[in-house]
């Protein structure tokens, strides 16, 4: 059993229908997309602590997903052993974070891995596909689309979770 914190409105007040200060997720999804909302909620803070909603802060996850989209332009080449080490470290860390419901730190690990992938001249397709598998629980729509666009058949959700080299 887990307990989770509340999402508070900007200013730290409890969200309440009676106070009329509830954020409508439909308008957020319409403006930024479902994956951005999902990623933002996971990244806001520890699952078991209360955190304040910030409309401005949703821009960060949106920009991250835009970077993820552009990464498909770097697919190719041989596996870079340095980048491969980052991928395996990310698999380990993200797997552990998910088990411990540390979703905010798992998203942070994805962002760190994205930074490393952007530094590379090219990203070998197997490393890119592993990145998409790691992203899928947090941003399933863009992960599925990019999985398909990179020539894969079947759903990314049907694929095995990546395992890291010890």
Keywords:
166 residues; mainly alpha; two-stranded parallel ribbon; 7 helices; 53% helix; 2% strand
Task: Give an overview of the whole structure.
By secondary structure, this protein is mostly helical. 53% of the residues lie in helices and 2% in strands. It has a two-stranded parallel sheet with strand order 1-2. Helix 2 packs across helix 5 (103-119) and helix 4 (81-99) runs antiparallel to helix 5 (103-119). The chain starts with 6 loop residues before the first strand and ends in a 17-residue tail after the last helix. The model has no long low-confidence stretch (mean pLDDT 89).
Distance between the termini: 30 Å
Strand content: under 5%
Tally of contiguous helical segments: 7
Strands of the widest sheet, in order across it, are: 1-2
Number of strands: 2
| Alpha-carbon Rg, integer | 17 Å
Mean pLDDT: 89
Shape: elongated
The largest pleated sheet is described as: 2 strands, parallel
Helix content: 40-55%
Low-confidence stretches: none
Q: Element order, helices and strands?
A: EHHEHHHHH
Topology:
Blueprint: E1 7-8, H1 25-32, H2 34-43, E2 51-52, H3 59-71, H4 81-99, H5 103-119, H6 125-135, H7 140-149
Parallel strand pairs: 1-2
């Amino acid at each position: 059993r887990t307990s989770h914190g509340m999402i508070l409105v900007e200013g730290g007040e409890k969200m309440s229908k009676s106070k009329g200060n509830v954020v409508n997720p439909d308008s957020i999804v319409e403006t930024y997309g479902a994956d951005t909302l999902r990623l933002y909620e996971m990244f806001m803070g520890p699952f078991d602590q209360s955190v304040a909603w910030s409309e401005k802060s949703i821009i960060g996850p949106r920009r991250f997903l835009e970077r993820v989209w552009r990464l498909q332009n770097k697919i190719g080449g041989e596996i870079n052993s340095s980048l491969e080490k980052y991928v395996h470290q990310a698999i380990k860390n993200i797997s552990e974070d998910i088990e411990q419901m540390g979703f905010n730190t798992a998203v942070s690990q994805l962002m760190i891995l994205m930074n490393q992938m952007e530094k590379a001249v090219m990203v070998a397709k197997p490393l890119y596909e592993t990145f998409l598998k790691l992203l899928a629980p947090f941003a399933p729509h863009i992960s599925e689309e990019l999985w398909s666009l990179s020539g894969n058949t079947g759903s990314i959700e049907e694929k095995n979770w990546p395992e890291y080299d010890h």
